[in-house]
Amino acid sequence: xxxxxxxxxxxxxxxxxxxxxxxxxxxxxxxxxxxxxxxxxxxxxxxxxxxxxxxxxxxxxxxxxxxxxxxxxxxxxxxxxxxxxxxxxxxxxxxxxxxxxxxxxxxxxxxxxxxxxxxxxxxxxxxxxxxxxxxxxxxxxxxxxxxxxxxxxxxxxxxxxxxxxxxxxxxxxxxxxxxxxxxxxxxxxxxxxxxxxxxxxxxxxxxxxxxxxxxxxxxxxxxxxxxxxxxxxxxxxxxxxxxxxxxxxxxxxxxxxxxxxxxxxxxxxxxxxxxxxxxxxxxxxxxxxxxxxxxxxxxxxxxxxxxxxxxxxxxxxxxxxxxxxxxxxxxxxxxxxxxxxxxxxxxxxxxxxxxxxxxxxxxxxxxxxxxxxxxxxxxxxxxxxxxxxxxxxxxxxxxxxxxxxxxxxxxxxxxxxxxxxxxxxxxxxxxxxxxxxxxxxxxxxxxxxxxxxxxxxxxxxxxxxxxxxxxxxxxxxxxxxxxxxxxxxxxxxxxxxxxxxxxxxxxxxxxxxxxxxxxxxxxxxxxxxxxxxxxxxxxxxxxxxxxxxxxxxxxxxxxxxxxxxxxxxxxxxxxxxxxxxxxxxxxxxxxxxxxxxxxxxxxxxxxxxxxxxxxxxxxxxxxxxxxxxxxxxxxxxxxxxxxxxxxxxxxxxxxxxxxxxxxxxxxxxxxxxxxxxxxxxxxxxxxxxxxxxxxxxxxxxxxxxxxxxxxxxxxxxxxxxxxxxxxxxxxxxxxxxxxxxxxxxxxxxxxxxxxxxxxx
Length: 760
Prior knowledge:
22-stranded antiparallel barrel; globular; mainly beta
């Protein structure tokens, strides 16, 4: 399968290279208000990932364009981004583009929902965070960035160990994509983080709700797509440096990147270093072993083809992540960021290729990915066998081929196949997280978009999934992760257990949605979708101690199948936007860990179980820009969810009502300074009085945050600098999704951060 898939891509690339140049586009970019030219505007062809910038006269040109439907994006800081569809013709096309100054951002092109269209045309709800917001928000990790979106929360134990929660679902109910390719790195447990960061990222798109039609198993709760930074404009080279210091952890995040694009060849390099000591709560108490370090390297190279583009990516990440477990002293020395006892030693390699070819009205996409995730769990380096308790390796190959073409002027289609081959193996170590196993996925899907009028847009499709899991006969290794006393070992009975398993799963899923414009400024969106998730290897086979309890897999688990319906209204005006949505998600065979009431070696026994689950809730967002104070922005968001089993018992790790109110002042120019802002916001969390069976109630809290920042341009160098304070009042609080709550540890106290970003 790997060979045949690769052969198809090679043949398509060769065919593309032999095509001749047929068209080019040129024009000028001006301000809509007074007609003055804009220097340095970005003009980008989204399908080709190729772009340029306007010169001193506002002029630009794009050469070697295929005769295909293309989406042109024109953007400049402080102005509303424009998108328009363009079909090349023989010869040259001249354009004049007028940009309006931006007050409130209304819509953007999103790529995670299938078709590259503005969000106003998509039936699937997609939120996003772009690079500009990432810089100003000053969050130390990707997941904490995402928590700014209504309906998205974070289950965490430290800055490095965290997982997103979308509408009450997390873990393998959420699919995380690295530039459109699914990540696979032992994310079955909340103690195992996704190995991904916010550096070298253009934007992060979030689908809230089932997306199995487009992405297959594990997309029951939603999809997070971390989209890589764009190449440099044609015939240019640029570099950037970013660093931020955090007072609470005496830590820092630093990155340096460089990108260059010629006429046909593009490349980029990026290095990343992060180091954080143990964090402190609102009483200045240190949370032991919450420290972590990260070193990462990213590179890409690509070719601009006459009929498309192809790129090759490689990411490497080395993480040492401390684990806060019962029995560790809170008086552990905090003079090093790198943990030296009871920590995860993670090495992750990610190799991917993305190829897009255009032939008339047909767009072909081929994506290949190969990942190697090496995971060790270290008790103590000076112990026997260097203290390695777990030593496992996950190798994953993924592929995707899809074709997009219009059927008529009103109907567009996408058809494709996707697949995955995954192997888990265990090296020499005392225990095993999971048994040696092989997994194979294959799926085929079709997705249609019908636009009978400017006001109505319909989307729908169908998908077939097949999964095969093979666990050959082998000794069943104990899994010890967070023992009651560090240094405890496995029992003789656990070491003598054996396992063998062969399971297959298949499913047909579908979706149907619509977007209807009640007026130019108001639209309704409705969507009904089914979703599918096969039980993962841990849920079927896990055995041993994990996070202070004995966890048992269930080899008889059935696949989760769900149906979710959601409806939303969106209104946008020059000075005002409003969003309100509601959803209902019914999940058959919902998989969760539940206590059995038994004990083993003094620890409670938990086993994976299934039940019918119902999740429903609502989300709201408001952005107001008073006309009388053009510099002022007021934002308010809120999200509420209720999640129960059919018997009335509440589901675990469900956030309470959360809200946020933000007041920001912003000016495009203050003296010699460029765009500047000052922001205050209040985060609010209600009491969680409906915990799951093995949880406890959690008191509500509120947090006050503040930040200030500005920019400065010197010749071709653009600088951003900011100061942010999270938990300004240094409140002592515990979040309901804090995984250290059972150990009595609170969330982080006051954290002052200072950041500098330089673009050359």
